[in-house]
Amino acid sequence: MPTEFISLTFPNASTEVSPIPNAAIDPDYLVRYARSLDDYNFNYTLVPYDSSSYDPFTIGATIAAATKNLKIIIALRPNTLYPTVAAKALATLDQLSRGRVVVHFIAGGSDAEQAKEGDFLSKEARYARLEDYIRILRRAWLSADPFDWASEHYTFTQFSNRVRPANGSSIPVSVGGSSDAAYRVGGALADIFGLWGEPLKETREQIDRVYAEAERAGRPPTDRPRIWVTFRPIVAETDELAWAKAHRTLALLKAHRANGQGKAPPDAPAPQNVGSQRLLEIAERGEVHDRALWYPTVTATNARGASTALVGSPQTIADSILDYVDLGAELISIRGYDNLNDAIDYGRYVLPKVRQVLEDGGR
Ligand SMILES: Cc1cc2nc3c(=O)[nH]c(=O)nc-3n(C[C@H](O)[C@H](O)[C@H](O)COP(=O)(O)O)c2cc1C
């Protein structure tokens, strides 16, 4: 499989470095952003989920209508949609987009965030429910024959799904997280496993954990989850200019958080999800890791979401990405802080460099 690139969907011009308070969806911006990703040959865009934010399915349908090749990754928390409904919703979007849908499952990393939408299960139980959920969706996509289900979390009888995926049988399933339960469920069931950008050594360790769980579940090496790694590149013409930009970006992140406009409130408690805890622990060990992986953006945002930067010229960013490709990452998620302009810069100057090296047979 070739190396593929992922971005994140933004519904308006608000960014972390230039926030627009209470910005509504800007349909023109959404379409312009999505078309830019398509034009610059990004392969996917993730439509994220948050209890207080927009509905990913309608955003995804809008992107599908405005683009040709871009695949749409719908982030989905099982507590928000009954699995039979989700199976049909995803298959509907898959048909509308002619087979461009991926689903990214989020078991839920924060009890408080889950409680906002009525989910009071423990994290272990949330992962057990996710396991059930994936099995139900796969079964519902496979055939229209009616089937019964009876498990701890879901019981129904004679469900028949006549809304099938575009390929007739399946939609790629992604799982993200860094806890033991995430490795177990994702290793056993996912087509794609999503990670946040950690140093090479720690990323290698996480990949090994996912592969070990896949093997334990009886999957052969030819059927392991494809690995997705996420970064926030800060790119400029030279390394020196990029570092200056990185420090300007960091100052803005800190200022916006202090005045209540950051992604995390100034007094945010320590995060409960293991992925964020790992990022904060690594941040304590040093600011720069490996070639150009920068951690102060992690601390400044309380590791709320993907937050490790890669800083440098397009060549440095491309070389850093190739370090992860060499480790086995096949999907590289890159999004910046100045969202649209950064996506265009990556599309012009970074993606072609990485692809050229890979086309020439690697380093
Ligand atoms: C690539 C990637 C994308 C993610 N997207 C989302 C998202 O859109 N919404 C969300 O609430 N959590 C998202 N997460 C967070 C985790 O999936 C979530 O915190 C997980 O349920 C529990 O994390 P843990 O297993 O590391 O403790 C994402 C994680 C990764 C690695």
Contiguous helical run count: 12
Small molecules (ligands, ions, cofactors) in the structure: flavin mononucleotide
Fraction of helical residues: 40-55%
Q: Order of strands side by side in the largest beta sheet?
A: 1-2-3-4-7-8-9-13
Number of domains: 1
Supply Rg: 20 Å
CATH class: Alpha Beta
Structure description:
With 363 residues, the chain is of the alpha/beta class. The protein has a single domain, classed as Luciferase-like domain (TIM Barrel). The chain has 12 helices and 13 strands. It has helices at residues 27-39, 56-66, 83-96, 111-115, 123-142, 180-189, 200-216, 239-258, 274-284, 296-300, 314-327, 339-359, and strands at 4-8, 44-47, 71-76, 101-105, 147-150, 155-159, 173-176, 192-196, 226-235, 288-289, 293-294, 309-312, 329-334. The strands form 2 sheets. An 8-stranded parallel β-barrel has the order 1-2-3-4-7-8-9-13, surrounded by 7 helices. Strands 5-6 form a two-stranded antiparallel ribbon. Strand 7 (173-176), helix 6 (180-189) and strand 8 form a beta-alpha-beta unit. The mean pLDDT is 97. The site of flavin mononucleotide (FMN) has 21 residues, from strand 8, strand 9 and helix 9. InterPro entries: Luciferase-like_dom, Luciferase-like_sf, SsuD_RutA_monooxygenase.
